[in-house]
Design goal:
Two copies of one chain form a homodimer. Chain A has about 350 residues and is of the alpha/beta class. In chain A, strands 1, 2, 3, 4, 5, 6, 7, 8 and 9 form a nine-stranded mixed sheet that branches. The radius of gyration of chain A is 19 Å and the shape is globular. Chains A, B: This is UDP-arabinopyranose mutase.
Chain lengths: ~350, ~350
């Protein structure tokens, strides 16, 4: 694992003083942090001493990306994807600033980065379900009846971690169950099977930039847009479609973080309003999308998805034309900052 | 739950004295047991006092089914499906006689039947993955981004339980990892998504007879057949295909049982030999099968699958012609013993 330290960037979108980093000091200090400041760039974000970080505010984003900065959302945690774009590392771990270190049932503090990297460096099994969960974990394996030809698995592109304490509920569920807490520690990592979509939460998420970075765009949402609080969902649907097409794996489960507080359900309801309707059409659409065989890179897949979004979703709302254009701009920016590596 | 007691039969295939029932006394005594004696019918199977049971040996099976008894395997735990056929109950729980009561991490003995019934009477969610696992469990729900139109779920047909201590490994894995024990208690129930097959183990399995009984045929395996130790796998592939087609759910995870001893890996290797090869072709075949829309009952689906097995798998081995014929005989026997209920 020591070898991995310089292959990981931790990306944190924020609007406030980063006191939460104190909780993570023993776990994050060995890594480089990319802090993406959302909202008013004249505000000062305080970062505790001793961390290795770069901080980018909106002025920085505009300066660095120029006209292509239009694809980075404002006043939405979607701005985190600017950090994905400018990172030079193989792996990204992104975490919200209201998430603290969780403890496992034995009381031990959980090193979320280490578990995510473990998930990413071991293969996934999207073509057949293993009933004892991740067969690459210690003490587990493939069960009787698992085809031997499938036991090498496929490279893992995404590791989706979970949350203890405050669960990631939508506004209606928050309103109905204000006191519900997530207390069940499920000691499992699961490959989400090929062809199955899932609600990817951006709170505690890691991925392999080289494999899936271009498809980890969190969309054009937030300020001035009719679509809010669906940035991670959008990235989840599209990155899963791309992973399925390219034969890459997506895992969910461990590691847990401690999610400290629920956001205001009334504010959330106002933000989610359109998304709650639209997801009923968007999800079946992305479930049925088939990418052409000619798409062999994440970039090509993503540009094809931009085309399909424009052609098929504009009838829901003209917003989706803007989204499709922003998706194209994102790939242009990605290619500018991540030119193909010269052959060795 | 009390209301369920007379809607459940527990089916146990065996060749020996059923001492293991002592461990289950508090949990199984309220239910009716169907004991299916495999092997030599002149042997006496001792059942501990105080259980409500019927015991059927091979002579009974031949007498009750007549010529259709040919579809019930001999010297293979597949004989358990005779019990499924003659039961009059809504739910079946089937368990192997080397499985004992397991304990949860708090040390409490696990009532496997109760957990299985809980899994079966709550819906499944095969169309979209819920990252907090079974949303119908206490303390859980659908997470943000889960479409509201899908939150009613679909009826659950199958509940696949797991094993502590001896994991269900194939012979090669047993040989390579003779000391591996399953010690991780994963506190989760998961719907296996639509379109995904899994290795269904018959050791600790429950299902809704009315919904999926006709597709829970464990095949013509064992004595005189070239296919052994794949009875549950075969039933798993086919029942999942039928569930997916009919819009029914399959859950896996809790409850655990304590699996006391591994069977002999050398004997297993000899038995599994053909299956280890064949599964490489059989699984992709069943993954790609599409049933016609006209098939609207489990029986119709199963007869269609019998036809497809005969047409497509005979090239692997002529055995699959015999299997296909036995599948048809099974449905004939099912219909004889389970005539359609008269309209109320």
């Amino acid at each position: 694992m020591a070898l991995m330290k310089d292959e990981v960037d931790i990306v944190i979108p924020t609007i406030r003083t980063l006191d939460f980093l104190e909780s993570w000091r023993p776990f994050f200090q060995p890594y480089h942090l990319i802090i993406v400041q959302d909202g008013d760039p004249s505000k000062t974000i305080k970062v505790p001493e001793g961390f290795d970080y770069d901080l980018y505010n909106r002025d920085d984003i505009n300066r660095i990306l120029g006209p292509k900065a239009s694809c980075i959302s404002y006043k939405e945690s979607a701005c985190r994807c600017f950090g994905f774009l400018i990172s030079k590392k193989k792996y990204i771990y992104t975490i919200d600033d209201d998430c603290f270190v969780a403890k496992d049932p034995s009381g031990k503090e959980i090193d979320a980065v280490e578990q995510h990297i473990q998930n990413l460096i071991t293969p996934s099994t999207p073509f057949f379900f293993n009933t004892l969960y991740d067969p690459y974990r210690e003490g587990a394996d493939f069960v009787r009846g698992y085809p031997f030809s499938m036991r090498s698995g496929v490279p893992t592109a995404v590791s989706h971690g979970l949350w203890l304490n405050i669960p990631d509920y939508d506004a209606p569920t928050q309103l109905v169950k204000p006191r519900e807490r997530s207390t069940r520690y499920v000691d499992a990592v699961i490959t989400i099977p090929k062809g199955t979509l899932y609600p990817m939460c951006g709170m505690n998420l890691a991925f392999d930039r080289e494999l899936i970075g271009p498809a980890m765009y969190f969309g054009l949402l937030g300020d001035g847009q009719p679509f809010k609080r669906y940035d991670d969902m959008l990235a989840g649907w599209l990155s899963k479609v791309v992973c399925d097409h390219l034969g890459l794996g997506v895992k969910t489960g461990l590691p847990y973080i401690w999610h400290s507080k629920a956001s205001d359900p009334f504010v959330n309801l106002k933000k989610e309003f359109n998304g709650l309707f639209w997801q009923e059409e968007l999800i079946p659409f992305f479930q049925s999308v088939v990418l052409p065989k000619e798409c062999t890179t994440a970039q090509q897949c993503y540009l094809e998805l931009a085309k399909l979004v424009k052609e098929n979703l504009a009838s829901i709302d003209p917003y989706f034309i803007r989204l499709a254009d922003a998706m194209v701009t994102w790939i242009e920016a990605w290619d500018e900052f991540n030119p193909p590596k010269p052959a060795a």
